[in-house]
């Protein structure tokens, strides 16, 4: 039986390992499918959804009559899009306080309209004072 020279083994060993690992990675990536969905986060009109009819609900009790207790809005998917099932809100770009559907603070009220529009209400569980420059940020996904 003839043995391969040491130099040949030093070259073929790493080459064979590279081919084996590359083939394995390709096989795993072939099954990595991402399904199409609507998702977006931004200011104003969001790609995938439009936010409208925003209502800020204030505390009715002293000493905080100018503090928010919740925010309500209509979320409409783009034509052909699906209604949202995940929603999050925060104010003035500050993501340290977020109300979201996963935590139960945001919930859809009623059923979606024929165009997919949904009424959402999000409870505000932190001290958020109402002010003229208040910016509402909404993220939504299906």
Question: In summary, what is this structure?
Answer:
The chain is of the alpha+beta class and 142 residues long. It has two domains: 1-33, no CATH class; 39-141, Immunoglobulin-like, CATH 2.60.40. It has one helix at 6-29, and strands spanning 39-42, 49-58, 68-77, 86-91, 94-100, 106-109, 118-123, 136-141.
Can you put this structure into words, describing what you see?
- This protein has 142 residues and is an alpha+beta fold.
- It has two domains: 1-33, no CATH class; 39-141, Immunoglobulin-like.
- It is 17% helix and 37% strand.
- It contains one helix and eight strands, in the order H-E-E-E-E-E-E-E-E.
- The chain has one helix at 6-29; strands spanning 39-42, 49-58, 68-77, 86-91, 94-100, 106-109, 118-123, 136-141.
- It has a four-stranded antiparallel beta sheet, with no helix packed on it. It has a four-stranded antiparallel beta sheet with strand order 2-3-7-6, with no helix packed on it.
CATH class of the largest domain: Mainly Beta
How many domains would you count in the coordinates?
A: 2
Count the E strands: 8
Largest sheet: 4 strands, antiparallel
CATH architecture of the largest domain, by name, is Sandwich
**Total count of helical runs of at least 4 residues:** 1
The first-to-last residue Cα distance is 64 Å
What CATH calls the topology of the largest domain is: Immunoglobulin-like
Order of helices and strands: HEEEEEEEE
The Cα radius of gyration reads 26 Å
Calculate the mean pLDDT score and round it. 77
What is the percent of helical residues? Answer: 10-25%
Low-pLDDT runs: none
Spatial order of strands in the largest sheet = 1-8-4-5
């Amino acid at each position: 039986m003839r043995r391969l020279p040491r130099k040949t083994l030093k070259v073929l060993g790493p080459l064979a390992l590279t081919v084996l690992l590359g083939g394995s990675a390709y096989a795993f990536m072939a099954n990595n499918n991402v399904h199409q969905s609507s998702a977006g986060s931004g200011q104003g009109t969001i790609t995938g959804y439009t936010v409208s009819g925003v209502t800020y609900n204030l505390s009715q009790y002293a000493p905080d009559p100018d503090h928010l207790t919740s925010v309500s809005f209509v979320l409409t998917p783009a034509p052909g899009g699906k209604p949202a099932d995940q929603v999050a809100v925060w104010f003035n770009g500050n993501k340290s306080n977020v109300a979201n559907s996963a935590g139960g603070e945001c919930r859809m009220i009623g059923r979606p309209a024929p165009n997919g529009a949904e009424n959402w209400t999000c409870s505000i569980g932190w001290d958020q004072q109402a002010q003229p420059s208040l910016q509402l940020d909404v993220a939504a996904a299906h």
